């Protein structure tokens, strides 16, 4: 259940234990989709995930002054903040960190330099705001296929590793590195 809270939040929304997810609608099985993320109105750190999201005809996002023929649109600055990412990427069980991606970011040079998660994981690209069949709308948008933490591209930007020393002892290599 804990995994589904972030990986398939629609399946767990408002229920203590979801029914068989394979019998649910395609939208629910999709896991994280447009409707879930763009229904986030805030953060509630007492819940898991800590994102406040509910089905609504208002969709939230990082752009101001937009209109849609399908639903209301509301600017939400949370979409430009790492606080949004914290909703699924930070989880503590009592005093033990289970998933501490947000805490790690807060201790990094990126936090010190005021670089939000979205700047690396959802960079701006030229693209469609919505499905072309719904409305033609080109704008600089955040990429929605973000490279993860194991992405070689992200790792090249994230860590500098230097071999300080290397020796062979009893048939094994002992390597000291500096990160």
From TrEMBL:
Pfam families the record matches: Cytochrome_C554
Ranges for domain Cytochrome c-552/4: 3-39
InterPro entries: Cyt_c-552/4 (IPR023155), Multihaem_cyt_sf (IPR036280)
Stated name of the protein: Cytochrome c-552/4 domain-containing protein
